[in-house]
Design brief:
The structure is a single chain. The chain is mainly alpha-helical and about 80 residues long. Helix 1 runs antiparallel to helix 2. It is rod-shaped and about 85 Å long.
């Protein structure tokens, strides 16, 4: 016979995904802005190295896309956190 005095039901903890979601949003936003800074440094470095044509091509292809992506990420990050 099982003695019910020593049996304890398991603790039920509720899972709140909000802290993990905010941490991931912050990491993605930070990674995007680090990429933007690195691409800006690459454009600046190409111009300083005297490779203006390469810097111009890189800025038109990569830098403009990184600016648009960073703006989208910033809008999503701050828009999602402003809904609360």
């Amino acid at each position: 016979m099982i003695n019910p005095s020593w049996f304890q039901p398991p603790l039920l903890l509720t899972y709140d995904p909000r802290p993990a979601r905010e941490r991931m949003r912050g990491l993605l936003a930070a990674a995007t802005f680090v990429g933007l800074l690195l691409s800006a440094a690459a454009v600046f470095g190409l111009f300083l190295a005297g490779r203006a044509e390469d810097g111009k091509a890189f800025s038109q292809l990569v830098f403009t896309a990184m600016v648009a992506l960073s703006g989208t990420v910033a809008g999503f990050y701050f828009g999602a956190s402003a809904q609360r």
